[in-house]
Amino acid sequence: MVDAKKLKEIFLDIGEVIEQNKLYLSELDGAIGDGDHGLNMSKGFKALNDKMSQIDTDDISTILKTCGMTLVSTVGGSSGPLYGTAFMKGALVTVNKTSLDVNDYMNILQQALDGIKARGKSKEGEKTLIDALLPAITAGSKALSHNKTDKEILNAISEAAKDGMEKTIDIIATKGRASYLGERSKGHQDPGATSMYLILDTITKKVLGEN
């Protein structure tokens, strides 16, 4: 179970991982985009970490909503609206909750995916963060339906997200600035899918006590 205190710690850990990988993410973005994805994400999670210390509530929904609104207002480019929407959609399915179990987590991820698809008018196979998130949800849902342990479910999510991220190398971008490159976008890993993997993997490690 993840309570409000643990959730705040998870966001702090995500911020640290994004900070550690900000230059790498921007390097990936530089090959097919504006080259600022890592710096933008770092800025957003720094602002979010400041907010976390000010939130005095056990309400999960309030924390997720605050997270979403902060990212929308501080992260540049398309990443802010997409990640912000993801967390705000997650807030809608956690109203009045003070803790989360793996079923809640899967609901949040599904809501996040639906929100990202609607906001970005995008789908799988377009070389975006969806290409890491959707496989993660599929793998997690399958593990859940087979009555796997929480550890197995969380690891399945991380592993599928990593696999989806790596597969973006072979995808020709059809969304965002990367789409301007056409065939030349192939051979490059998508920065958004990479940051999505880093976030999901950090959640897994924190919940399992590996961070």
TrEMBL record:
<dbReference type="GO" id="GO:0047324">
    <property type="term" value="F:phosphoenolpyruvate-glycerone phosphotransferase activity"/>
</dbReference>
<protein>
    <recommendedName>
        <fullName>phosphoenolpyruvate--glycerone phosphotransferase</fullName>
        <ecNumber>2.7.1.121</ecNumber>
    </recommendedName>
</protein>
<dbReference type="GO" id="GO:0005829">
    <property type="term" value="C:cytosol"/>
</dbReference>
<dbReference type="GO" id="GO:0019563">
    <property type="term" value="P:glycerol catabolic process"/>
</dbReference>
<comment type="pathway">
    <text>Polyol metabolism; glycerol degradation.</text>
</comment>
<comment type="function">
    <text>ADP-binding subunit of the dihydroxyacetone kinase, which is responsible for the phosphoenolpyruvate (PEP)-dependent phosphorylation of dihydroxyacetone. DhaL-ADP is converted to DhaL-ATP via a phosphoryl group transfer from DhaM and transmits it to dihydroxyacetone binds to DhaK.</text>
</comment>
<feature type="domain" description="DhaL">
    <location>
        <begin position="5"/>
        <end position="205"/>
    </location>
</feature>
<keyword id="KW-0808">Transferase</keyword>
<keyword id="KW-0319">Glycerol metabolism</keyword>
<dbReference type="InterPro" id="IPR036117">
    <property type="entry name" value="DhaL_dom_sf"/>
</dbReference>
<dbReference type="GO" id="GO:0004371">
    <property type="term" value="F:glycerone kinase activity"/>
</dbReference>
<dbReference type="InterPro" id="IPR050861">
    <property type="entry name" value="Dihydroxyacetone_Kinase"/>
</dbReference>
<comment type="subunit">
    <text>Homodimer. The dihydroxyacetone kinase complex is composed of a homodimer of DhaM, a homodimer of DhaK and the subunit DhaL.</text>
</comment>
<keyword id="KW-0418">Kinase</keyword>
<dbReference type="InterPro" id="IPR004007">
    <property type="entry name" value="DhaL_dom"/>
</dbReference>
<dbReference type="InterPro" id="IPR012737">
    <property type="entry name" value="DhaK_L_YcgS"/>
</dbReference>
<dbReference type="Pfam" id="PF02734">
    <property type="entry name" value="Dak2"/>
</dbReference>
